[in-house]
Amino acid sequence: MTSEVAPVGTSRPPMTTFDPRIVVFACNWCSYAGADTAGVSRIQHQPHFRMIRVMCSGRIQPAFVFRAFEKGADGVLVSGCHFGDCHYIFGNERAVEQFAKTMNVVKLLGIEEGRLRLEWISAAEGGRFAEVINEFTDQVRALGRSPFAAEDAIDEIEVPEGGPCLNGEHGSSGTGSGSGSGTGAEGGH
Ligand code: FES
């Protein structure tokens, strides 16, 4: 939704505000649970995001992020367990490597770096989840609509089947992809 906000008592042109479309890739064990904690604790945060649950942040390939931007995301947040807490041991270290590759391509494509972010959020950190969402939403809002968005269809983003971590080297307990939006992480499987 777009609205015009006219500054009072100034001659500046009206500032355009809008609700950015944020896609959050969250690992099942920490970040997704952190969102749930925020919801259960009734911690207020901005609601303009779609959450996609994966079993581990190590599962989040560059293609997932590019797909999200293509489907209309104005910003993409990748989140997982803190170091030492990953249920697949090295999954979040893998996520760091993948994130660096993704960021390089994002820059090559001319997408602002501020539209992509990596954060570690534990299951107990509902407050931190809310802070990150609020901060990131404001940051993306300031950047405006993504010029890379080809569609307005972030609800259609799906994560393909696969092991919890990239290459499946840590087992094959499947992908727990789901979605949630607004306050909390409802809608997951
Ligand atoms: S299980 Fe959360 S980052 Fe690996």
Q: What do the pLDDT scores average to?
A: 83
Based on Cα principal axes, name the global outline.
globular
CATH architecture: 3-Layer(aba) Sandwich
The DSSP helix count reads: 4
| CATH class value | Alpha Beta
Q: What percentage of residues falls in helices of 4 or more residues?
A: 25-40%
Number of domains: 1
Strand pairing plus helix content: what structural class?
alpha/beta
Percentage beta strand: 15-25%
Strand order of the largest sheet: 6-5-3-4-7
Which kinds of small molecule does this entry bind, naming each only once?
FE2/S2 (inorganic) cluster
Succession of helices and strands = EEEHEHEHEHE
Radius of gyration: 17 Å
Major sheet details = 5 strands, mixed
* Poorly predicted sequence stretches spanning 5 or more consecutive residues: 1-15, 167-189
How many strand segments? 7
What is the CA–CA distance across the termini?
29 Å
Question: Which topology does CATH recognise?
Answer: Rossmann fold
Features:
binds FE2/S2 (inorganic) cluster; globular; five-stranded mixed sheet; 7 strands; 189 residues; Rossmann fold; disordered C terminus; 18% strand; alpha/beta; two-stranded antiparallel ribbon
